[in-house]
Design goal:
Blueprint lengths: L1 H12 L9 H25 L8 H5 L7
């Protein structure tokens, strides 16, 4: 249960906010958030070996939509 709680906590910090009347868009953005968090965790596991770990906000910046 600890992994799910951490995932929800990380998603709530840097959530992609798109307001829409269609529920499918909200669901798709949530799935996109999960994919970003999972890829960041995998990146940090591999980058720790060569000291290149990044914060989540730095990792997400080139991926997220422009504001």
């Amino acid at each position: 249960m600890g992994g799910v709680d951490i995932l929800d906590q990380l998603i709530s910090c840097y959530r992609i906010l798109i307001r829409s009347r269609k529920w499918i868009f909200s669901m798709a953005m949530h799935e996109f958030d999960i994919a970003i968090i999972n890829s960041w965790i995998q990146y940090n596991k591999e980058a720790e070996q060569i000291n290149l770990a990044k914060d989540l906000i730095i990792f997400e910046k080139p991926i997220s939509p422009k504001r």
